[in-house]
Specification:
Layout (H helix, E strand, L loop, with lengths): L15 H8 L6 E9 L9 E9 L3 E9 L4 H10 L1 H22 L4 H4 L6 E7 L6 E7 L7 E2 L10 H24 L5 H4 L13 H18 L8 H20 L17 E6 L2 E6 L7
Antiparallel strand pairs: 1-2, 2-3, 3-5, 4-5, 6-7, 7-8
Amino acid sequence: MATKIRIPQTKEEVTVDWFNQVLEPEGILVKSLEFLGDANEGRGMMSSLERIRLDVTGDRSLTIILKTLPSDPNVRSYVIKAGFATREVQMYTKIFKDMEAFLASRGVSKEKFLFRHPKCYFGMEEGVGESYSMVLILEDLVSSGYEPWAESIRKDLDWAHTAATIREMALLHAVSAAYGIVNNVDSFLNLYPFLLDLSSKDDNVDGFVKAGFEAVNTVFAESEESMPPGLKEKLKFLETHVVAIIAKRAAEKNRPCLRHNDLHVGNIFYSHQNDSVSAVLFDFQVST
């Protein structure tokens, strides 16, 4: 009889035996583990991130991120109530798997067209309300050759990093839109009710728009000579009319797609290889 999988509630419950139980479907056998410390590195407080090195069969090591609820009881209660944690678990264990299976069913290369996000080795949630608990075992992007934007939030992205980010955003939107077309999805909220229900009526939308375009304009002011022709004028038009456009689109029957909704430099890592930049998006707690 299989042993029931339990979500660790303390660090002491994160053991070699537990890892072997949950990683068995991945064909990973753990021999020993080492806690390497907090992986948040000051970038957020909506979850607890522990970096762990696993020594596995084949004389190799695998470094992962163990993501659980935040330790602060007030933040923990807010994250549960707002649905941030369950949304993150479901994005990795349901939506991303659905998108990958969709591409495979169409004979499309996921290496070329699937948006880059951390590999999820295991995800689980249980309970409701204050008894809710969750855990994710995710790829450690640092050990995979990625790193945060070197300037952190003190400086906006340059054009190369902006372009890499836009590419991953576009793939997320395009793959999910194609999924919606093929499967006659009227609303992803109907298909995945755990997604965040945002609308242009949100009181914060004006602030989001203002802050977003200030950041975009700062980046382009430093890279104007490398901007595609006409992009500056189109962005200015969009800045002036975007709220009205959102309101108009919200009233129409639109082609749905998935959105990250919290895409700032703290939620993007970059790889720099062969004089090119690639991006990976993470932290999907407010996706819709």
